[in-house]
Amino acid sequence: MSKDKIHIIDDDRRLCRLLGRYLEHGGYDVTFATSGDDISQRISDSSISLILLDVMLPGKDGLTLAKEVRELSNIPIIFLTAKSDITDKITGLKIGGDDYITKPFEEKELLARIESVIRRAKLETYNQTDKSQASFAGWSLNLINQTLCSPEGDQVDLTSSEYRLLTALVSRPNVAISRDEILKMISGREWSPLDRSADMAIAKLRKKIEQNPKKPSLIRTIRNKGYQLTAAVEYNNSAAAH
Question: Which residue ranges form the domains of the chain, and what is each CATH number?
Fold first, then answer.
């Protein structure tokens, strides 16, 4: 069985070498670069399973690079950041990051996060093999291309975390999904009563699919349980999907 490949982008060469040795010991193939200047070439020339991306890179920063990656690929991204401010972390997740970890970090925690993100990505790919398009309330979610079309036929841009969140809601219509599950899905961490990240994620998704986000009819709040999609969902196979 071929190994998953991790590509590290960090200007700290010593950290790259240390992480490389640790991840190789954990069963991964590892490459690294100190900048993202050749990221488009890297993506097209190799089968990268996940990118570890430092936010505070000199020149073109990690957030800018993440946007470029998302224009080319859905390769999972975990941000490495020295910033602990929640706003910076949310910004990274909004533009397409799958998780983040704050420096300094325990290598075991990083490995666990990598395994979790890759596992989710593979599960999404597996689940799409015979259900490539989901339709609900006139909306069409293409599970192959990860695109969303409105009832009017307009394409609506989704971030990576928004796509995962909507896919989870669509896969379990009329079933409440807890805030804890939502937070794990979008950021890989446990929910706490003071953490509003899950509610913010739902609010942003509502703005994109609800006629009136202040009075939502598609994504309902279920008291003490979480959120649920209230519409019926129908699936088409790949032959019928656009």
Answer: 5-126 (3.40.50.2300), 130-236 (1.10.10.10)
HEC sequence for 177-197: ECHHHHHHHHHCCCCCCCCCH
CB neighbours of residue 220 within 10 Å:
13
- Residue 35, exposed/middle/buried by CB under 10 A (0-12, 13-18, 19+)? middle
238 — pLDDT class (breaks 50, 70, 90): very low
Q: Cα dist. 108→3, 17, 19, 23, 140 in Å?
A: 19, 16, 11, 10, 39
Interatomic CA distance for residues 74 and 118, integer angstroms: 12
Q: Under a CB-based contact definition with an 8 Å cutoff, are residues 28 and 2 in contact? A: no
- Contact status, residue 37 vs residue 80, Cβ threshold 8 Å: no
Whether residue 44 has pLDDT greater than 60: yes
Neighbour tally for 154: CB within 10 Å: 8
Calpha distance 202→221 (Å, rounded): 10
